UniProtKB/TrEMBL annotation, chain B:
GO terms for cellular component: endoplasmic reticulum; Golgi apparatus; plasma membrane. Keywords: Membrane, Transmembrane, Transmembrane helix. One of its GO terms (biological process) is phospholipid translocation. It is found in: Membrane. Belongs to the CDC50/LEM3 family. It comes from Haplochromis burtoni. This is Cell cycle control protein. The keyword Hydrolase does not apply. The chain crosses the membrane at residues 28-54, 311-332.
Amino acid sequence: MERLRWVQQCCRQLLAGDSRRGWYSDGLPTSSLLNTHSPRGRVCGKQRTVFPRNGRHQQDYERVSRNYKSNAISTTKYTFLTFIPMNLFEQFHRAANLYFLFLTLLNWVPVVEAFQKEITMIPLLLVLIIIAIKDALEDFRRYLFDKKVNNNVVRVFCGTQKSYVDQCWKNVQVGDFVHLSCNEIIPADMLLLYSSDPHGVCYIETANLDGETNLKQRQVVSDFPLQGEEFTPESFHSRIECENPNNDLSRFRGYMEHSNGVRVGLHSGNLLLRSCTIRNTETVVGIVVYAGHETKAMMNNSGPRYKRSKLEKHLNTDILWCVVLLFVMCLTAAIGHGLWMNSFKESIFQVDTETPPALAGFYIFWTMVIVLQVLIPISLYVSIEIVKLGQIYFIHNDLSLYNKQLDSRIQCRALNITEDLGQIQYLFSDKTGTLTENKMVFRRCSIFGVEYPHEENARRLEVYESENTETAVCSVTLKSGYSGKSLSCRSLSCNRSSVSLHTLTAEPMEEDQLSGHVQPRTGAFCSRMAKEVVPDPALGRKLNWLTNHSSSETPSSMELTYITDFFLALAICNSVVVSSPNQPRHVIPEERTPLKSLEEVKLMFQRFSFSPFSALSPSQIKGSPHSLKSRLFIRGKRGSLTLSTPVSNTTDVSSSSQENDSKPDLSAREEEEQDVEDQETEDDLKDTQTNPDEARQSMQDLTKQVEEITDELVYEAESPDEAALVHAARAYRCTLRGRSAESLLVDLPGIGSLAIQLLHILPFDSNRKRMSVVVRHPLTGQVVVFTKGADSVIMDLAESPTDQTEVYSHIKEKTQKHLDAYAREGLRTLCIAKKVLKEDEYDLWLKAHMLAESSIENREELLLESAQRLETNLTLLGTTGIVDRLQEEVPETIAALQRAGIKVWVLTGDKQETAINIAYACKLLCASDKLLTANCGSKDACAALFEDLILEVQGGESLTALTGNGESMSSSFILVIDGRTLGWALEDELRSNFLELSRRCKAVICCRSTPLQKSQVVQLIRDHLGVMTLAVGDGANDVSMIQVADVGIGISGQEGMQAVMSSDFAISRFKHLSKLLLVHGHWCYSRLANMIQYFIYKNVMYVNLLFWYQFFCGFSGSVMTNSWVLILFNLIFTSAPPLIYGILNQDLPADALMELPELYQDAQTSKTFVPYMFWITVLDAFYQSLVCFFVPYFAYAGSDVGVLSFGSPINASALFIILLHQVIESNTLTWIHMVVLVLSCTSYFGFVLLLSGFCVTCSPPVNPLGIELLQMSHSLFYITCVLTTVAALLPRLFFQALCNTLHPSTVLKSAHMDTVDSENYCRRMQRWNMTHSKTNRRSAGADNAGLEPSLA
Amino acid sequence: MVKQESESANRPDNTAFTQQRLPAWQPILSAGIVIPGFVLIGLAFIGIGVALFVTSRSIQVLELDYTGDSNGSPCSSCSQSVVTNCKCSLNFTLTTLFQGPVFFYYGLSNYFQNYRRYGASKDDNQLYGDLSYFTSPSSSCSPYDYDSSKKPIVPCGSIANSMFNDTFTLTWTVNGTTNNVPLDGKGIAWWTDYNIKYRNPSVTPLKNAFNGTVKPINWAKPAYELDASDPSNNGFVNQDFLVWMRRAALPNFRKLYRRIDASGDYQKGLPAGNYTIDIAYNYPVRAFNGAKKIVFSNVSWMGGRNEFLGIAYLVIGSLCVVMSIVMLIVYAKFKFPDEE
């Protein structure tokens, strides 16, 4: 099987036409989740020491580096000399080949010899040669690719010449200094020592490695003394200690010890990975630490995936039955032969009389094994592989699975589970990026407890939506007709649920309100949308006040601080890389001339220097215009805080070149304070007189300005949320303009560009569910932590400042309310918080953090701890609501899948409300569905709840059973379970109850679930219900789920390629699933199942002919056929038709399958390939072989017919029967079928006629000379053949016709519907739609929000 | 333009083949198609069946068992004794003309010429006249490759050794006069066997080729003396030998012995009258409970007499018609199924 995997791999790549990445692109980055189990990382706990190879440390170098692999790679399996023995050795690891070998060897034993020795070798040789050729080609391709890669040229420092010289990749050694220019590919894993970038960063593109095209930033080893000036390898004397090679792409630990003993910590940010590309950096120099096969890229080459399909497992039992059958037949022959021998006293025609009958019987047993060998359809395995390749070819080439926008087809990564697609019973879907676009658009926000609904923004989104399709509008109007009824239904379900369940429908008020907001549904996504955020007028006015202090609505200064910090956080609390089409990405653009004069900037500055901790009167929170008095009071407070700030710290800000105009002079500031206040008072007075029109004017200015910027900057974010937030901030003129390792350049409204000193980034991880940046605040000079994260986490961490508990908790309360509303609306919520650090606090933390950073062991844990230490006592600034639109046709797809009998589960990390809302939007939930919510605080409560819920569900089921048929759809149960409860549910004690419950539910929604839980759920369902599961997801958090499921599908979306890399199939849209499953899955399954049955039938039928003959030749293992024909009959003459059958047959047209997803259920429950079908097939084969043998037998009985002459009509009619049987079984016959059938016939007759004409002594002992020619000149031959063929096929024909008339199966019905009865079909579809839309009206609130208000 | 092309480089070809939309014939086996088909097949089969049946009836076959198992039969003495060259004779009477051309067969039953090891026990190269195989026959002939004195047996092997060696002469008695019925022994073997597959070594006289070899153990005469009357009918191309070497497929078989020479009185076949067959009874069959018989038969376009085929065609044909009637009833009942 191993060989076949390679073949498949080869063919897949050929099919994919994607040899660009070739060998490197396969099975790449598996999740870090898996990598932690990597044995290599653990087993060798030793470290690797690297000395530079610059001539200075020759001895050390040679001592240490002797065992390090060089950079030459060889991915070939064989060399020229070892190919034959190694390939043979590998091939004989397969059971099939061993069986063939056994038969061949058996035939060499004289007493059991059945055929000529050469003939039994033919099947084996054929298989071996075909596979060997494929292996050789594959290996040769790899060899060529290796050669190409190895001979790439790179500039490497040569110790003797003291300069960089061109070297082949294969000659690069560990310790070499490699000099790379922009757009060059990195030849080995190396530490970045020098970058031409002034900030010591370099950008790499990892597309070759993981397919992600966004740029990753890498940094020069921190504190590297040579930084800045031109790097000279000779002067490098440091020693590098790092961990041994492992396959974890995201982890690298080590330190560099300088000659003076100072150690510098190394991390993955310093490491340039092999096969990545240098971008946007002129030159870089690095020292190689891992080379060749020890690089992380090479160690991640795990090769293609191999999964065993359910059908294949099933097939094995059938094969086992064939073995039993073979055994019985051979035993019969052995006993028969013994008895037969026993009946003779002496014999004139016997060759040997000495062998006792028992022994002769034993010999005959083995002879019969050889004679009847074809009964075990060993070639079936090869045929299945070929058929699957064909199926993959068609799936791969399907136009409807092609995404025009991305120019991507479906990728079939696992090649041997195509038929599993036809048997899926449970579908586990991720939400974000799978059901939704994962293209985030800023929708609304809440700051300082004030909600900014961004109505304008909503309208904009609506416009985009309505532009999409007219059909969407149509369906909306249709559904609205049922709203009257739906309302009553809803209230019914409300009543029910209010008794025992918490449901969303319990808050009708909220819902109506929500329906006013947009719920994006379908439609092609325009990336413009994410960028063009229309600012909320209220918020815009408040911000504008900063610019010209002339807003009519004057916010409180505290609120203003919140707002500014909020947008500042949006702009900087991320890892977005900024680039613009005109400029290289890494260069921080020149600062623009500030909008105001220096003096004014300083004034602005002062105005901002409010601490969030400053005292605040409750009246201010309510938005009352601030009084001069209170502001003065605040000012004073701030002043005292500023005093505690050491002046020296601020000088760091000036490290970048922008110091002259934006850098605050703190010492001066305090002195000027008094003046400023005076001036402000004047401003305030001015404000009150401002014309309201001015505000509008300024709004227009603002938008204009935003558009201007839009054209210039390109943000490359790791996650779309980040990008959406940055864009949102830019809409409010808080623009991120550039980023380097130490500073960020941000435009602030009314101020212009500011350089912000970036102290730390604490990157996002799924444990903390948040990220933070530590910066020196550009306006206050304080060390500030901005944190952005999941609401649950931030809300827990956000603590009220001791002196203002009341005020603060009020804000928090309000924000929480907004959060809940956002979630119900289906928005993704993120909370923004900040924390001001005192310098001594910061110093304390910094020390601990540095320690954590430089440690080699437990670095991750320490960093996590360190981050957690910092992210406490946060001050909540506000929250954002981001819209993630549903992908197009998601509701339709889910509806189709549910009609197909597939239970759809949604596993998401999102909030419960968000998840439920999305579920409504995508019609996973209907209004009449009863929502069972499981949120438990303890395990016992959970157990009790499950009991209750099961009772409830059973009650509901019996009710439906009582009321009768039909509307069972309307009262389904939907289980919503949160992560914590899920954790208990997955434990042993509650598992069975959970299964029982979830089995009875139409759908299950798991929210707040971790990646591990996702995979546990899939595993639980798969193992305990014994069903076929499919997991679909797009992100790294879905990887484990995808790997656990029987079929894993990755969606190549916004979140990198990890899901795709671990998946079996990779699609680009969720809607492709319906075609993939309903059509291709169905086809693949029915094709393969039918082909396997046909294959078994064919073998049993043919082998039985030989068996029946044994009754007339004393069970002596004699055959009535030339042994060539016997061997080639299966191998050549009848081998192509089943393949064509397996690749091309369409039991139903694609349209019918798409429109009637119910048809999927046939295959789902293995209807086509149930055990009794196997026995029916075998029985039919027995019958046909009986007819095929005994009709000629009686026709020729008593005549002077010779052995081979007798076999001739039998073989011919067997061929006809086998081929026509397939025609009967085929649902579609194209010209390809015809050509293959004709070719099969002609190849058989051509071969036998050739033998009969020219084979004089070629086939001893049974010489076919003249047989067929003579036979075919007799009319008896044709009379017999016609009678045999018709008699053999008659029952099947009759049975099928009778069945089709009596019980027209759904299959046939739809076929009729499709062709004959289209009118009736339309009627049915309409009726179905009607009943369905009735049940759907609940989702209208979420779905057609834009149109609903007019009705409400 | 170039950019656009490269943008959709991955787009699959939109052909009927790759999109699996090839025009296809969909054989849906429903009553509407099957009923006329069955009727047609049934009628055709009944027609063929009647023709076959009538033809088969017109073929005359005369079988005479001469094994001599029962005491009353003419050859019982020969079957009991072990003496060689035992003679016996059979009498039969034809009341009407036995339509010619008449074929004269000998038949054996319970004789397994298809036994695997028996069938393999010959040397095709030797029989092809290759002299090198005369001195060293193939091991497949074992144990009939060398005799007890290690001399090679030619022709070697079990088939040749067990060659049928009863001989028959047929006499016709009419009006008191006894005539020898002329038997034609030429052309009873296959053309390909006689001309291609079997050859005598090109040595004259033929006897010399067999120097240093011995005749098969059971044979009375060596191969080159099989037919004393016709020197060209000797060696491996002896017609009787060729007929015997072509193994029968089934354990009850007959082999062509002679044809009645269609000349003189026998131009139209065997005329009515009393006939006597004189048998040189040599071949033992009691050891395997076999039986021997003599068969006279004439042939038609469908070969020898075989009533099975005619009956089978009639049965299958009628079955088809019955099935179509059943289908018709079913179809009439379910033609308009209620669409819910």
